[in-house]
Amino acid sequence: MFEFLNADQNTQAADTISPPPSAARALRAVPATPTTGAARNQPVRRQWRTALAEAVSQANVTSSHFLGAPRLQPPHPRTPRFGYVYVPDWTYEGVMRLIVQDGATALLLEGAHGGGKSDLAAFIAMMLGRELEIITFDGQVDVGDLMGRWVLQQGEMVWRDGKIPRAMKSGAILRVDEINAAPAEINIVFNDIADGKPYYSREADELIVPDPGFRLIGTMNPHLEYAGTHALNAATLDRFTRVEVRYPSKAMERTRLRLNFPSIRDEDLDVLLDLAERNREQKANDPSREYVISPRALVKTCRQMEHASFSLADAIRYGIIEKAAYFGAEIADALKADVTAMIAARAQQP
Ligand SMILES: Nc1ncnc2c1ncn2[C@@H]1O[C@H](COP(=O)(O)OP(=O)(O)OP(=O)(O)O)[C@@H](O)[C@H]1O
Ligand SMILES: [Mg+2]
User: Fold this and answer.
1) Element (H, E) at 81
2) N or C: which end of the chain has fewer CB within 10 A?
3) Is 172 a pocket residue for ligand 1 (Cβ < 6 Å)?
4) Of all protein residues, whose CA lies closest to atom 26 belonging to ligand 1?
């Protein structure tokens, strides 16, 4: 969830972008990020991730206090701004590098629902001070919305660019949600623009040359696991750099929730995180299980506790179990039993 900055707020955002002194101190202790992906760097990466998570939690930084990201341009009026504390992680670091250093024009973020794909793209746009243009393939969008159409203006037919040419010309970050649901005629357009090449629009009779800042970020759920979705065709996929967005580690998810919901008790967070861990392990062992507790579901559960003063049990009921029941009473009952056992075990602790 984020909103767009308006012109007045831009100046304010630019002023607050440097980390507060507490954050700067904590962040200085974070070792430099490893620059190559070789297996021998795994321990360094782990170390880095833990240090980053700790620094973020100690320093009380907000998403506008980014940890060392280059701000390439002053913010555009349609730069997103976050209403919650976004915690950047290793995937963020990698994607940012692909966008800024490698200069990849098209990225595909693929991963299970509620794992942070869309907000990752929005956060990157915020950090780079770029305009974010969003397309969601929800069955309502037509080619005219995307490519443009002729409209009647003061008695004359004039061409009005759609979202894609607009983003290409202005150098926006174009986030395409559920990109694998795009109709075939749009897929063909993506094939051209994902290569960073100019695109000839026949209807407008115009060669659209992309601004060097233009980036296309597609997001999608893994097509094999989600009913109603389909694979990207091989030619389209070939043009994208594909990045898997996995659910965060338990430590990272704890940091996210702790920073966003400071009033929730540690013991309650433990129950939520243990429940999610168990459920996700079950899903990993048996991919046919339909219900998985997403990071989004944990956020909603915490929000119910913090904002609506729900008890832990009630919040779990509305945030998790009622949804699980949609996939069958058996799954919901198993979760209910887990929660009851966890809460009882906790009550017995001295
Ligand atoms: N890095 C982060 N730090 C803190 N919270 C996060 C972070 N990333 C995601 N979230 C939380 O997770 C929620 C879900 O993220 P998002 O909507 O980006 O998921 P998604 O992968 O696009 O989901 P879907 O597949 O359903 O479209 C966000 O609304 C936010 O509350
Ligand atoms: Mg999304």
Assistant:
1) strand 80-82
2) C
3) no
4) 113
pTM: 0.80
Query: From the CB of 64, is ligand 1 less than 6 Å away?
Result: no
Res. 243 pLDDT band, cuts 50 70 90: very high
Residue nearest to atom 23 of ligand 1 (CA): 114
Alpha helices in 60-208 (DSSP H): 90-97, 117-128, 143-147, 163-170, 184-194
> Which class does domain 69-244 fall in?
alpha beta
Does residue 117 line the site of ligand 1, with CB under 6 A?
Answer: yes
Backbone angles phi, psi at 57, to 5 degrees: -70, -35
318 residue type, one letter:
Y
- Each residue of 118-131: pLDDT tens digit? 999 998 888 787 89
What ranges do the domains of the chain cover?
69-244, 261-348
108 Cα to the center of ligand 2, angstroms: 12
Q: Whose CA is closest to 313, among 335, 289, 283? A: 335
